[in-house]
Design brief:
Blueprint lengths: L3 E3 L5 E3 L3 H7 L3 H17 L3 H15 L6 H5 L7 H11 L3 H18 L2 H17 L3 H15 L5 H18 L4 H11 L15 H10 L3 H18 L5 H12 L4 H18 L2 H14 L6 H13 L8 H13 L1
Antiparallel strand pairs: 1-2
């Protein structure tokens, strides 16, 4: 595995020829690990179509590790690769499928009895609940991640779980937003400020807490810093949501810039095939343009996005989209 190269701030990226070389060894598990490494990098770059099939096929191979103690002990990706499938499912417009993948990921992590893997699995589960706009379930999963993380979880992943915990608590009790924001400022400076790949998935939680506390400049700074991180590292899978949230925060002070940011979010999500972020951006644009001449076009965008879903109709974005479309008729 000496040919493996590292993309700064992102996932490991195998150099050209790594997977074929490993496959020639005749070890399907090693080949699957190499595939996960390369495909995860593609996922982080927002190349969802290129990542989907290789990750799914490699995951099917790694599923066989459950009864292979030797491989489980020597495969750090066990308990981690399932999180990529959760992200792929949600971004691809399968919010219910994301929860099925999260359940399988947690079961594998529990079977390993490793607090590091269990902390990651619970944190990613909590993040999926954030995306589905389920703060009560996100809060419960984040608490469990923090608890198990004390037994041996990574400080970075505990910091990520903490950001979700404060987001969920703020959603459930907005009166506590300032307290939550102040706690985030103190606790996360080292844990998330210069974190490794994947940090931009959690930035929206932090920005939303700051905005709810009235710290709009700080919230915008968090988003701008994350977007700068995207440009440095090519971690683009969550860039659509960063632009959309930036637009939401600017809608009162600079509507023109807010519209540009949300339209950019819509453009990125389309390019990536990220259906869930596309729906969310279309929803924000329809609400921004409500009562204007642009509203009809924005609602048509939303209608197309909503019609592309076949599941998850009880999740927050789809419920809100249906209500907005119904009210416009």
């Amino acid at each position: 595995m000496n040919s493996t190269q590292v993309v700064p701030g992102s996932a490991f990226t195998p150099s050209n020829g790594l997977s074929p070389r490993v496959r020639r060894l005749g070890d399907p598990v090693s080949a699957a690990i190499a595939t996960v490494i390369g495909s995860a990098a593609r996922l982080f770059r927002g190349q969802l179509a290129a990542a989907r099939q290789p990750l799914t096929e490699a995951g099917a191979v790694l599923d066989t590790l459950e009864n292979d103690a030797a491989h489980v002990a020597n495969t750090p990706l066990v308990g981690l690769w399932g999180g990529h499938l959760v992200v792929l499912a949600w971004l691809g417009g399968a919010p219910d499928g994301a929860m099925v993948a999260a359940g399988k990921m947690r079961a594998r992590a529990d079977a390993c009895r490793d607090p590091f893997h269990r902390c990651i699995a619970m944190t990613i589960t909590a993040l999926a609940h954030v995306w589905r706009r389920e703060p009560d379930l996100a809060l419960d999963a984040a608490r469990r991640a923090l608890e198990v993380g004390l037994l041996g979880g990574s400080p970075v992943w505990r910091g990520r779980a903490m950001s979700i915990h404060h987001w969920a608590a703020t959603q459930l009790d907005p009166r506590a937003a300032q307290t939550r924001a102040d706690e985030l400022s103190k606790a996360l400076a080292l844990q998330l400020g210069a974190g490794p790949g994947g940090r931009t998935a959690f930035t929206p939680c932090v920005a939303v807490v700051y905005a709810a506390a009235g710290y709009h400049d700080r919230a915008l700074r968090e988003l701008d810093d994350a977007l700068a991180f995207v440009e440095r590292t090519d971690e683009r899978a969550w860039s659509s949501e960063l632009h959309r949230l930036r637009g939401e925060l600017l809608r009162e002070s600079d509507k023109a810039e807010a519209e540009r940011a949300i339209e950019r979010a819509l453009e990125i999500s389309r390019e990536q095939g990220a259906k869930s972020f596309e729906l969310r951006a279309a929803l924000s644009l329809a609400k921004l343009n409500r009562g204007t001449r642009k509203n009809r076009a924005a609602l048509e965008e939303l209608r197309r996005g909503y019609a592309s879903f076949t599941e998850g109709f009880g999740t927050g974005d789809l419920v809100e989209a249906k209500g907005l479309l119904g009210a416009s008729q």
